[in-house]
Amino acid sequence: MNNERINIVGAGLGGLAAAIRLAEAGRPCRLISLQPSERAQSVLAEGGINAALDLMGEGDTPEEHCADTLKGGVYLADPNAVAGLTRGAPDIVRWLAGLGVPFQMENGGMIQRSFGGQKKRRTAYARSSTGKALMTALIDAARRHEASGLIERWPHHAFAGLTVEGGVCVGLRVRDAWTGEGFALPGRVILCSGGLNGFFPERTTGTVANAGDVTATVFAQGVRLANLEFIQYHPTTIGISGKRCLISEAARGEGGRLCVRRGGELWYFMEELYPELGNLMPRDVVSREMTRVVRREDCEGQVYLDMRALPAEIWARRLSDLREECRHYLAIDPAAELIPVEPGIHFFMGGIDVDANHRASLPGLWAAGECACQYHGANRLGANSMLGAIYGGQRAADDLMAQPGLDAGEPVSLGILPPMEAPGDDAFALELRDALLGGLGMLRDAARIEAALAAVDALAARADTERCRNRLALGRAMLLAALSRRESRGAHTRTDFPERDEGFRKTTVISRRGDAIAIEYRAIPEEVEA
């Protein structure tokens, strides 16, 4: 009899969705995380979750949602995977509502709002704290399965590496951050470990608890990555202590307008440059235009978000928490004052290379959520991230259960293991960040990227821990991917190759063998009629 307990790394939306799916089918799993679910990155998500429910009477369909997603990603995503995502979205939102998520209601029914890059109002939301609302519901759902023993929590445990036998992932190693004891945990693995925020401390809207070490470690173990050059800069962020504070896209969805002073007058540049969608153009477009207008000689060097004309009812019923955040963290009342904003690193479209079933290149390993490369192509549409994490976690769990299981034993103690972090790692992380930012900014060219590669290589002489060496290799892979893609597409803008080149409408595949990093390209799958 199969006694395998599946290992899930990460306890945010992707990890919880996978765990609940497994538990509902009677399959036991371990939910492994360094931080509790209440502190996962998913809690910070604000604006909403997309689904073509057509609650606003606009004739919305999953096919239109798919078309918007593919267009927003500049046709770099797998159309079959995206079609599955958008077809599954309505049932996911209805499932979440059934779990008790307090989606915004008016006149007795759920409502949806506009989000960037989409012509229909398809974003379901809970004011501007949707991530917290979704996480609360999934945590409660998971606890019922914890009580039955189907979900076994392994909190405060750090990922230390995969266990690979005969070219197959058969388990993983973890370290208890409180006691230092290590364990070998048998069973197949689903990684839901989040993005690479820890590579950009103080420059990202995300939590740097998502250090990127899981991705760096499995990359060193031979797992393929993809599309690392595509890093989303969110247009509306503002600096606070230690990070970028996000002003949700919901602000523009409800009527907020971007402007800059030109000749002493406010110029609402997005509305003039893009009359159809204006301030709700995809994030890469908005961030790029913001970068350009502040460099113009006739404009001042600061972009503002103007929300002063929003009705009091909108503030009270839909954006009250956003207004309170601005007052608390920025000492600005957005109902009465302009908010100074600038682009900040927000999401990583690239990550672990997975197929439409979320299988990684190493058999026995799956990945979902922001750590995986799926659905978003060259630029993620707002409110597709939480959808992608939940759907991806479910899809990974379903595919895993359809495969033959392992005859797995019980956890084995490895004794006391040294911590992954070493003295000096924080200073090293800041130097690596500065080197990467030199080549991975909003506007890139070969000279900047090559200078960044030289700076990363110079750090190698001081990389005296395996963690630092793995992080350097992943940082170098990001830069090599950016250097190799000689075109401008989505979040990747090369000033020396300013045009889109359809010869590059391919997935960037990145492999590591020892110290060597290889960049290859894979054709986008043809769309298969469902």
The gist of it:
The protein is α+β, with helices and mostly antiparallel strands and 530 residues long. The chain has helices at residues 13-24, 62-72, 79-99, 130-148, 213-220, 250-253, 269-273, 283-293, 312-317, 320-330, 385-401, 425-439, 446-459, 466-484, and strands spanning 6-9, 29-32, 49-50, 105-106, 109-110, 112-113, 123-124, 151-154, 157-165, 168-176, 181-186, 189-191, 225-226, 231-240, 243-246, 257-262, 265-267, 299-306, 339-348, 351-353, 365-367, 372-373, 412-416, 506-513, 516-523. A hairpin with a 2-residue loop joins strand 4 (105-106) and strand 5 (109-110).
Describe the fold and architecture.
The protein is an alpha+beta fold and about 525 residues long. It has a domain at about 235-345: Alpha-Beta Complex (Flavocytochrome C3, Chain A, domain 1). It has 14 helices and 25 strands. The strands form 6 sheets. A 6-stranded antiparallel beta sheet has the order 15-14-19-18-16-17. Strands 8-2-1-12-21 form a 5-stranded parallel beta sheet. It is globular and about 70 Å long. The relative contact order is 0.17.
Layout: helices, strands, pairs:
Elements: E1 6-9, H1 13-24, E2 29-32, E3 49-50, H2 62-72, H3 79-99, E4 105-106, E5 109-110, E6 112-113, E7 123-124, H4 130-148, E8 151-154, E9 157-165, E10 168-176, E11 181-186, E12 189-191, H5 213-220, E13 225-226, E14 231-240, E15 243-246, H6 250-253, E16 257-262, E17 265-267, H7 269-273, H8 283-293, E18 299-306, H9 312-317, H10 320-330, E19 339-348, E20 351-353, E21 365-367, E22 372-373, H11 385-401, E23 412-416, H12 425-439, H13 446-459, H14 466-484, E24 506-513, E25 516-523
Parallel strand pairs: 1-2, 1-12, 2-8, 12-21, 20-22
Antiparallel strand pairs: 3-7, 4-5, 6-7, 9-10, 10-11, 11-23, 13-20, 13-24, 14-15, 14-19, 16-17, 16-18, 18-19, 24-25
Helix pairs in contact: 1-4, 1-11, 2-3, 3-11, 5-14, 12-13, 12-14, 13-14
